[in-house]
């Protein structure tokens, strides 16, 4: 696909885009290893400390029946992930 659109790239990408220096992690979750009956370990996490800073959604996810009722009779379906898709494709400088 990159060969088909060579004119759009200043230089061909040599691999994945560089890391952008953003780390997504939660450091204050208590992790406990609990032994299971078969001798293996189970990793359990205590999320109670972060419950106070979590943002609750005002609009819960609708049930499947409600979604199917809303889509009844439709013949074209689409889904575009614009939020996380923006940084997935490197663009030519000046076109951003």
TrEMBL record:
Domain of life (superkingdom): Eukaryota
InterPro entries: DNA/RNA_pol_sf, Rev_trsase/Diguanyl_cyclase, RNA-dir_DNA_polymerase
Name this protein carries in UniProt: Reverse transcriptase domain-containing protein
Annotated organism of origin: Mucuna pruriens
Taxonomic lineage of the native organism: Eukaryota, Viridiplantae, Streptophyta, Embryophyta, Tracheophyta
